[in-house]
Amino acid sequence: xxxxxxxxxxxxxxxxLQKDNKIVLLGLGITxxxxxxxxxxxxxEKYGKRRVIECPTSENSYLGHGFGMSLGGCRPIIHxxxxxxxxxxxxxxxxxxxxWNYMFGEPMPNPIIIRCVVGFGWGQGxxxxxxxxxxxxxxxxIDVYAPSSPDSIEAIYTQALNRKKLSIIIExxxxxxxxxxxxxxxxxxxxxxxxxxxxxxxxIICWSYSVVEAMRFIKYFPExxxxxxxxxxxxxxxxxxIEKSILKTKKVIYWEPCSLEFGISQRITSSLFEKIQDVxxxxxxxxxxxxxxxxxxxxxxxxxxxxxxxxxxxxxxWPKDQDLSDWSPWG
Amino acid sequence: VHLAIGHEGAAVxxxxxxxxxxxxxxxxxxxxxxxxxxxxxxxxxxxxLGDKKGCSKGxxxxxxxxxxxNGFVASTAIxxxxxxxxxxxxxxxxxxxxxxxxxxxxxxASPEEGSFSEVLNLISLWNLKVLIxxxxxxxxxxxxxxxxxxxxxxxQFAKTYSIPYKAIMGxxxxxxxxxxxxxxKQIKKTSRPAILKITTYRRQEHCGPEQDDNLDYxxxxxxxxxxxxxxCFEKQIxxxxxxxxxxxxxxxxxxxxSKYV
Lengths: 331, 261
Prior knowledge:
heterodimer; A: alpha/beta; six-stranded parallel beta sheet; 11 helices; 14 strands; B: 8 strands; 14% strand
């Protein structure tokens, strides 16, 4: 029996709504005739308008509204049919939701999930085809997921609904109609261990729709030992798994479904660089305490990292407040 | 630190009518709302000092206060950012068939943000029990309203979205108590939102402890010192009672400050 990506999402949403009456869906187009690529089919009929809520075209406010509902005891899943419209919602997404757990010193009472679709393909112009996964994964308060096939949907929603933070699930439009034989498939349980194909010659690191492209590609060249790693959980990348693969194959293809600059592949490269090249990297931001860098601490850590013997002296001047008038290094 | 000296009447006047389970959200100038909703002054002071025992574990500071047991959900620093949270909270209350209202305090710059209009649409469309209180002190940081706004009154927004609107002066707390009492009762009865505009005055600088007279950007400070809500309230109570309250409260405050500062 075959099941498509959107049917799987529809079934998972249905199961989750059935199991937990605190879950509500919000968004534009979730009760319209097309039902958000068919992913919200029959849900409003089954669970009613109180739980499947069609929203005005106010992306920023309906996201904030959903978050307000989660503060009030609901578990909202907020829908955006195109990722490009989420730029409107960035104030709520970043300033209120992503920063919340840090800002108030304790976790928000409920999880909150955003579902969004990358336009891509025929008829989708520059303002309907953006994929900003890397930008979203940059923020510490957000978990970003990018499924490539129906088999990971259940695991993603289960994990997201167990975490008191914002999870964003990025769905590629071209995945929606893609089918998978559900009798043959193994349902993915750990989102961090997701090699699709094992091999020893070339590592292909990919996510979202590019996994599908890579899988199709390697079928034409079975003589090469491809290893395909599907990075589903973009905020919690399994670097150990990738490192092992790269040390084995010594060849990497990054197959990304979006622009490269400051994106997922560059993030992976930067974290593997130190391990694979003989270069030591030291990220200063890790030792900020109470907003300010502590000089004694920096020296200690640099000594440790680079095997230096720099000495800290009490006379060394270091800014402690925003008044830098008597400190300027510029002379 | 955004001090609310001069704004106290609005906070006390509205929160006097709220029960513990009624919810309050606020903007960057929120100390007065926090205290008026029944939260602890000690936790506020510790928060300002960045202490772990502060109301937001010392992470939020002046603009991010929270006291959930007393129904103070949050104050947020981006103008108009708390409004959508208020409408969502009211929606969650509606799903629980709760009678509680959600009050969202905003400043006079908030209607300039798109989120203000968006949220007015949401709360009216979905019949949510939200009271938006606009504290109008005429200034957004240091920029006057007349330079910023083409609309003559905030009531135009209310009319557009069919939301009841009331405007009063912010210097008489008793009057604010009475007017907001009626509005809150009406919200509970009709399950419709309302907007209350309170004209008030920021005596201190935008951010910080000074009275920035030296910047010479306003001429009405003297007049508003006379109209100060606490002064006005003092005049309405008997001398002995006033002295008693003053003695009690100043002992508490002195004790608190000598303990931590």
